[in-house]
Design goal:
The complex is a heterodimer.
Chain A: E1 34-41, E2 51-58, E3 63-67, H1 74-82, E4 89-93, H2 103-109, E5 110-113, H3 126-136, H4 141-154, H5 170-183, E6 188-192, H6 200-215, E7 219-223, E8 236-241, E9 244-247
Parallel strand pairs in A: 3-7, 3-8, 5-6, 6-7
Antiparallel strand pairs in A: 1-2, 1-4, 8-9
Helix pairs in contact in A: 3-4, 3-5, 4-5, 5-6
Chain B: H1 2-24, H2 28-49, H3 58-79, H4 81-91, H5 93-98, H6 104-111, H7 113-134, H8 146-171, H9 175-188, H10 200-207, H11 210-223, H12 231-263
Classes of the chains: A alpha/beta, B mainly alpha.
Chain lengths: 248, 269
């Protein structure tokens, strides 16, 4: 995939896709898989905003990198995009729909991998963890088993399937978290420092999963600190400066 | 129909998760049964010492208090929800529940199921031990009726746990408040002694919450203790609390989560 240089974060990179993904509107509207429009977020009134009228559009079949210094607002941007927190102003949309307008549909379309090693039940085995989150993702009964087995196979978790999470290494946990992120076939994946603790094999599995998502018309937003070596070809690269995106 | 089925599967998945986590601590069940046994032993001998007006015999008071012991566990189970929410917040799993199609509200309601069902089981074991070891006289003809009444009581108690869960989402603390409320309800709910022993103003408080009504009816059904008022009125009170407070508490929880999302504090713990 060729990286492209963009100076307008709302401009679409070339995707090369022949057909739009399933959730693309059929009425000819220009909605994108993910769009952040004029997003403001301020944590305290006496501090400058973390996000200040931030705009970003992801196109189908593209992976976008957003970097910047620690504490610059990358995670806040991802949380707004995921529907976890609400912006003070502006909106986050998936195919033109915000989380407030149709939360269930929004959460079916997007999947968020937060930074760190949280979000797992320490006393559950890998298989039970996957089964639990698949049920919570309301994956239909017919494809439930296949989904679990595919996740275990795709992310090389076979040998760990019966192991409890609190008995796994950080890298193994990260592989499980990534498996959970991709398991329910989301159309937009938000990754916050996804390479944390991953070995080369784990990174390859992540890249392969992203490749499959992009091929099906999905989009990825990848955030990590500036300077991190990712070995990914990004379609667009931005950094956050003073609450806005600037071409990297 | 598919949506209903998927929701039921998700509710069941939360219960299964909690069961697996519970079973991963191997001594927990034994410990809880032993705690019940020790409480029964303690009150068995205390009942031999005390004389309470209105009880014809020591055995009558023992029967009265055993039902109270069984019910306090059920009450605890409802008030465990805020602590469970806090654990989810700390583990970072609450974020995931919030971002799932199942959603945070249904997840919070679902996470109350295992503790309540388990408390129901422990209450049954407590009554069983009381009958088998200490000669508790159960009214077998009306015991089966206690099951639907217990379910109704749980529905009436649940809103209190949901309200404290909402508080936990906002201020990240809930356990302190629940401890006070449980202590207060143990006194005014008539769990260990009849509420008629209380000063009149506390007796008024006893009538304003569902625990007294639940203990009255369940005692009547399980051990034949006469109900302070009409059992029908007590049942209506439970129905009223459940019908009024359950939707209210859910609305408060929805509001608390929205506040957390607006302020951005939903991710804090």
């Amino acid at each position: 995939m060729a990286a492209v240089e963009l100076s307008d974060p709302t401009a679409a990179p070339t995707t090369g896709l022949e057909a739009p993904p399933a959730s693309a509107p059929s009425d000819g509207t220009t909605a994108a898989p993910l769009a952040l429009r004029g997003v403001d977020k301020r944590w305290r009134k006496d501090l400058p905003p973390v996000l200040d009228g931030l705009d970003l559009t992801l196109e189908p079949g593209t992976v976008t990198w957003v970097g910047g210094r620690n504490g610059v607002g990358k995670t806040t941007m991802l949380r707004v995009a995921a529907g976890l927190i609400e912006p003070d102003r502006g909106r986050a949309e998936l195919w033109g729909v915000s989380a407030n307008e149709n939360r269930v549909r929004y959460q079916r379309l997007v999947s968020f991998l937060p930074a760190g090693d949280r979000g797992l039940y320490a006393r559950l085995t890998v298989r039970r963890q996957l089964e639990f989150w698949a049920r919570i993702a309301m994956i239909d009964r017919a494809s439930f088993r296949t989904t679990i087995e595919t996740a275990i196979e795709t992310f090389d978790l076979g040998e760990l399937a019966t192991r409890r999470v609190d008995r796994m290494s950080m890298g193994q946990r990260q592989r499980l978290r990534i498996a959970m992120t991709f398991m329910a076939d989301p159309e937009v994946v938000l990754l916050d420092e996804p390479l944390t603790s991953l070995d080369t094999e784990g990174s390859d599995l992540l890249r392969a999963a992203i490749g499959r998502l992009l091929a099906s018309g999905g989009a990825v937003l990848w955030c990590s600190p500036s300077g991190e070596r990712t070995e990914m070809d990004f379609d667009a690269r931005w950094t956050i400066q003073q609450g806005r995106l600037v071409a990297a | 129909m598919n949506g209903l089925r998927a929701n039921c599967s998700a509710f069941a998945a939360v219960m299964r998760r909690d069961l697996h986590i519970y079973l991963s601590y191997r001594t927990r069940l034994v410990s809880q049964v032993l705690t019940s046994l020790f409480s029964l032993t303690l009150f068995y001998y205390v009942s031999k010492l005390v004389h309470v007006d209105g009880f014809g015999s020591h055995e009558a008071y023992f029967g009265f208090v055993v039902v109270g012991i069984a019910l306090i566990g059920v009450m605890y189970s409802c008030f465990s929800i805020p602590d469970l929410v806090r654990q989810e917040l700390i583990a970072g799993t609450f974020d995931r529940l919030l971002l799932s199609p199942f959603g945070a509200i249904r997840s919070v309601l679902a996470m109350s199921l295992f503790p309540m069902i388990f408390a129901f089981l422990i209450a049954t074991i407590t009554l069983g031990l009381g009958w088998a070891i200490f000669g508790l006289q159960l009214h077998w003809s009306t015991v089966p009726l206690s099951v639907p009444v217990m379910i109704l009581a749980l529905l009436a108690f649940l809103p209190f746990g949901v309200l404290f869960a909402a508080l936990t989402v906002v201020i990240k603390q809930g356990a302190v408040g629940t401890t006070w409320v449980i202590a207060l309800l143990s006194i005014v709910g008539g769990l260990y002694f009849p509420v008629t022993l209380l000063p009149s103003w506390l007796q008024t408080l006893a009538k304003l919450q569902p625990f007294t009504a639940a203990t009255d009816v369940l005692r009547h059904l399980l051990v034949g203790t006469s109900v302070g008022g009409s059992p029908g009125v007590s049942l209506l009170k439970l129905v009223g609390f459940a019908a009024l407070l359950l939707p209210t508490s859910i609305a408060v929880l929805v509001g608390a989560i929205r506040v957390g999302q607006r302020r951005g504090t939903i991710i804090e713990y």
